[in-house]
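Working notes for the structural subgroup meeting. M.R. asked for a predicted model of this chain before we commit to crystallization trials. I am recording the input and output together here so anyone reviewing the notebook later can reproduce the run.

Input as submitted:
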Amino acid sequence: MWSELRERFGFNTRRRGILGGIRQAAAALSRGGCRRLWIDGSFVTAKTYPADWDGCWDPTDVDPKLVDPALLDFSALGRHRMKVKYLADLFPSSIVEQRTGLAFVDFFQVDKTSGTGKGLVLLDLTAWMA
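Returned structure, recorded in token form:
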């Protein structure tokens, strides 16, 4: 639920700014029919001033004509636009991360430093504004 995410992770001005990016991305994806958005990165840690957030979204039944094109362009320029607009690197959950060969939903569940498993925050977009 949105209020839980805001309460848990929006404890300073920088984090509330990032929450704004998450809210915009969630709204843009929801308009296209997306039902789930996974949130990762230093934003979902105790880090006081994270630079951004990372995430992936479920492309099942999503109409790409209804999704912001900035969320569908994974070129260097497209990713820059996404970062500026949403403060994030976002990918469809089923796309494979090139270096590891893992789908992004799995890639984000592995700690980059230790290689151990970790959790993600799942935002249910069918009820995210509730």
